[in-house]
Design goal:
heterodimer, A: mainly beta, four-stranded antiparallel β-sheet, 0% helix, B: mainly beta
């Protein structure tokens, strides 16, 4: 069974440029999460989807970050424009509905903003 | 507020036991979790404990929960080089928001 797939694996951009990350969750997992992990810290939740509905986006900086999960499967996270402080690893995870804390993570996208 | 605390580093000799500790603020969560992150990889669920238990053993892993003190620990018996990783304690707070600790980097000394 394929795990959570993320792309790209690495991204280097200059500040003020846009960037997008893509995630394909495990088949059948209705819940999808985007986390940001800063160096030396634990992941912090940005947004959680139940199917195509964003049920928790309270930590998403909505002035520059946006996310979508059309058709309740794949998801895209976008930053426009990127700032130096956005450099981090962006992790996507999925779980079955009601999976509570049993999350399956992708390998992440490491973003460097220069 | 929602807070999960861990010490940042732990060094253990190969073959010894490793004990990784975690404290958290008040939570009504049903389960508490331990995740493992190897270099360059995402997090992997290692084990979990139901909140009405005080101990759970799974092969070399033992999880201890002290709800009164809000303290969770992970013991790895007979630590091997392959156990080198960062270990995260994770606690769900209201509305299933899973909050991770800062992670403990486990280093194995040959």
């Amino acid at each position: 069974e394929a795990g959570v797939v993320q792309s790209p694996r690495y991204k280097i951009i200059e500040k003020k440029q846009p960037v997008a990350f893509w995630c394909n969750p495990i088949s059948g997992h209705n819940t999808l999460y985007w986390y940001r992990q800063n160096l030396g810290q634990g992941p912090e939740l940005l947004i959680r989807y139940e199917n195509e509905e964003a049920v928790d986006d309270s930590q998403l900086p909505k002035d520059r970050f946006s996310a979508e999960r059309l058709k309740g499967v794949d998801s895209t996270l976008k930053i426009q424009p990127a700032e130096l402080g956005d450099s981090a690893v962006y992790l996507c995870a999925s779980s079955p509905t009601g999976g509570q804390g049993s999350l399956f993570f992708g390998s992440g996208t490491q973003l460097s903003v220069l | 507020g929602e807070d999960v605390e861990q010490s940042l580093f732990l060094s253990v000799r190969e073959g010894d036991s490793s004990v990784i500790n975690c404290t958290y603020t008040d939570s009504s969560s049903t389960y508490l979790y331990w995740y493992k992150q190897e270099p360059g990889a995402g997090l992997q669920l290692l084990t979990y404990i139901f909140s009405n238990m005080d101990m759970k053993q799974d092969q070399r892993l033992t999880v201890l929960l002290n709800k009164k003190d809000k303290h969770l620990s992970l013991r790895i018996a007979d630590t091997q080089t392959g156990d080198s990783a960062i270990y995260f304690c994770a606690v769900p707070f209201g509305n299933e928001k899973l909050t991770f600790g800062t992670g403990t980097r486990l280093t194995i000394i040959p």
